Amino acid sequence: MRAANEAILVIDVQNDFCPGGALAVPGGDEIVAPINALVAEFPVRVFTQDWHPIDHLSFASQHAGAAPMSVTEMPYGPQVLWPDHCIVGSSGAAFHDRLDTRPADLIIRKGFRREIDSYSAFFENDHVTSTGLDGYLRSRSVEKLTLVGLATDFCVNFSAVDAAKLGFEATVIESLCRAIDFDGSLSAAKAGMQDAGVTVA
Ligand code: VGL
Ligand code: ZN
């Protein structure tokens, strides 16, 4: 068992990010069993769930003529336009069937405001709107975070960098993550995490 001040953050292990899903991450399902085993070691367990309304503005389908994976400018900065994914209540938004969610103390949903995407478990993409997770972890006296899940270069990356900025000791276990790796996003994410003081193990 890990120390009482340690939490695990399981990021977006959902059907749409696994093979066969709308925004499938190669090998996304390979990490499910080892994550189940690791979760048991931690006294504090938080899972996140990407959770978008059907007309979410991060979807290419909401922008006339825009191709999935193109980039647009939002009021808060550049935004990748994704295929429709993780729609509220859909089977794609459900956790992977084999992910054991029973041990989760808290499930944080993010990206539920139409106008703004949320990669990070802490802040939406404006870097200002809080999900409440920081307050939850502090209330539970958490100081060290271990991050696993999908996708390494987007939601895991943004969550880990925010965690470090907020003063948590953050470790990403790379072998328990899988990446989208589009347009150099994985190497950029790794460099950004290292710069922010995240340990990539
Ligand atoms: C994610 C793209 C869009 C992720 C979520 O979980 O990494 N990526 N929404
Ligand atoms: Zn999303």
Short overview:
Helix content is 20%, strand content 22%. The protein has 201 residues and is α/β, with parallel strands linked by helices.
Description of the structure:
The chain is of the alpha/beta class and 201 residues long. It is built from four helices and eight strands, in the order E-H-E-E-E-E-H-E-H-E-H-E. The chain has helices at 32-39, 133-139, 152-165, 185-196, and strands at 6-11, 44-50, 71-74, 77-80, 106-110, 144-150, 169-178, 199-200. The strands form two sheets. A six-stranded parallel sheet has the order 5-2-1-6-7-8. Strands 3-4 form a two-stranded antiparallel ribbon. Strand 3 and strand 4 (77-80) form a beta hairpin. The longest helix is centred in the last third of the chain and has 14 residues, at 152-165. It starts with 5 loop residues before the first strand and ends with a strand. It binds pyrazine-2-carboxylic acid and zinc ion. Zinc ion binds at residues 50, 52, 58, 85-86, 111.
Provide the succession of SSEs.
EHEEEEHEHEHE
Shape annotation: globular
Tell me the fraction of residues in β-strands, as a range: 15-25%
Output mean pLDDT. 98
The percentage helix is 10-25%
Keywords:
six-stranded parallel beta sheet, binds pyrazine-2-carboxylic acid, 22% strand, globular, two-stranded antiparallel sheet, alpha/beta, binds zinc ion
Per-chain topology:
Layout: E1 6-11, H1 32-39, E2 44-50, E3 71-74, E4 77-80, E5 106-110, H2 133-139, E6 144-150, H3 152-165, E7 169-178, H4 185-196, E8 199-200
Parallel strand pairs: 1-2, 1-6, 2-5, 6-7, 7-8
Antiparallel strand pairs: 3-4
Helix pairs in contact: 3-4
This protein binds pyrazine-2-carboxylic acid and zinc ion.
Pyrazine-2-carboxylic acid binds next to helix 3.
